[in-house]
Amino acid sequence: MRLFAAVLPPEPAVAELAAAVQAVHDDRLTWTGRAGWHFTLAFMGEVRDEVLPELHTRLERAAHRTAPFALRLHGSGHFGERALWVGAAGELAALRMLADRADAAARRAGVPMEQHHRYTPHLTLARSRGATTPLRPYLDALAPFEGTSWQVATLSLVRSNLPVSGVPGEQPRYETVGAWPLRG
User: Fold this and answer.
1) Lowest mean pLDDT among 5-9, 10-14, 27-31, 38-42
2) Among 42, 107, 139, 184, which one is least packed by beta carbons within 10 Å?
């Protein structure tokens, strides 16, 4: 299974963001669907079935060691000219700690992880269709966005089902395969 640990924003936060995105949405970028809006904490890639029980145990432990915390969707950012995202504000130290714990849980469970790097909280909104579409107008339009704060109370393990039909614009499908309450 292709897996990642994530924080999933609640529907009211997603609805606020959708309204802001609708104001700038056009066909020059490939936009992610609302169902795919999440904060990836630790991307694991393909995980072998025999690793799953230990992964679940370790992610549960990571969640139980982390107290719920406040977060809100905030502003905009980009990775080069290839990805447009909305950021986060609130208790970012707690979000980074949860990302570190999810990464460590995967490593200890035997998931080969990429080299660890400082976590940049972001929720991907769109991808460029090439270097010909400048992201600056979208960044400027979304920069003032401030979502309503919510309590992050769950660590989720999400399966990513990549498109297989070959239909242009088909989005990955995401399925939550595990969720653990934050307890702290």
Assistant:
1) 27-31
2) 184
